[in-house]
Amino acid sequence: MSTGFFGDLQPIQYTGPASTEPLSYRHYNKDEVVLGKRMEDHLRLAVCYWHSFCWPGSDPFGGETFNRSWMAAGGDPMEQAKLKADVAFEMFQILGMPFFTFHDRDVAPEGRTLAESNANVNAIADIFEKKMADTGIKLLWGTANMFSNRRFMGGAATNPDPDVFAYAAAQVKNAMDVTYRLGGENYVLWGGREGYETLLNTNIKQELDQFGRFLNMVVEYKHKIGFKGTILIEPKPQEPSKHQYDYDVATVYGFLKAYGLENDVKMNIEQGHAILAGHSFEHELHMARSLGIFGSVDMNRNDYQCGWDTDHFGMNVPELALAYYEILMAGGFTTGGTNFDAKLRRQSLDPVDLIQAHVGSADAIARGLKAAAAMIEDGRLKGFVDDRYAGWQKPENADILKGGSSLETLAERVHKADLEPQPKSGKQEYLESLVNLFV
To answer: Where in the cell does this protein reside (predicted)?
Structure first.
């Protein structure tokens, strides 16, 4: 039964690149085969619950602009949560996307106690379970919101108060249980406040030890309940904390190594967070694949004139092509996927705008995927990189990296042959022009 929120809008159809119909897929053709795999299986698109159905259109200087009925003041919170679930699954079906994602506090209101909060989440999960069975829509991942409530103002796993640490552990347990029950393919830890504001009141070593133990408990519980999905961490450098411990992929990898977690946890990488860390999206993806910890992505983009995480829908095809090149080079998604962690602009008031944003971004992502696949099939980009490092394939050079050399032996080699290496062009402009052939 329709909620009426989207009027009489019908499921979005693929109409092809020549179409001028804005509410249609012109490039996202889920059955198109790209590099031997259906596009839908490559991209594994997921609609996120929080930005799509929980964000009211506020910003630091103004209140809500969207006025959704399930957000109205004075309404019964659980009845509003049920209506929100109905609207969400109606939108999932209109878009024809296979997955969704959520935080526990997105789907159900917080109660007076954690037991009441958990009961609320589980009641909505019952509704989800039926809707998922009826529609075939799946859960890409679940997570817990441990940053909004004031109890978490000093962090969750890294909070100086052990009682807050215990509360966070109990909340994550329930969120993992719900994710497991709904067949979620991953569980994400997003440390919204796992960091510090000032070193004057902070013991970093203590907080990192807490964070490491917390994550180890998550991995232990995953195995205890038989959850086969992937545990993911989402790097983010700042906002709201001055410095967050999950700063970027390289920082998180060092943390995982320090606490023996590098084989159990992978990365959920967001474009906007990469920019906040002073990187490009493709840098973070490349780093994750190089370190063997690539898992999933949150797809959005930042406003480059604004110094915070603005979460625009991804529409920049050249950027997306470079991102999906790295994803494909990493072997593509296994349990992960492409989560639309993006929100409407606060002047985009109409329900149809929510549909249009996802449709337009899906088309841009599809174009990026196809451009990336064409670059891989062409082979010149990878071939250039392989040739640039070809010298390391020679036995005497490969032996250096295996520990079969020393400063003394290399010095002898240089002096004996009177080596004077000559630089070779990196041909950056040629490579950038090569990429432009495909986008």
So the answer is: Cytoplasm
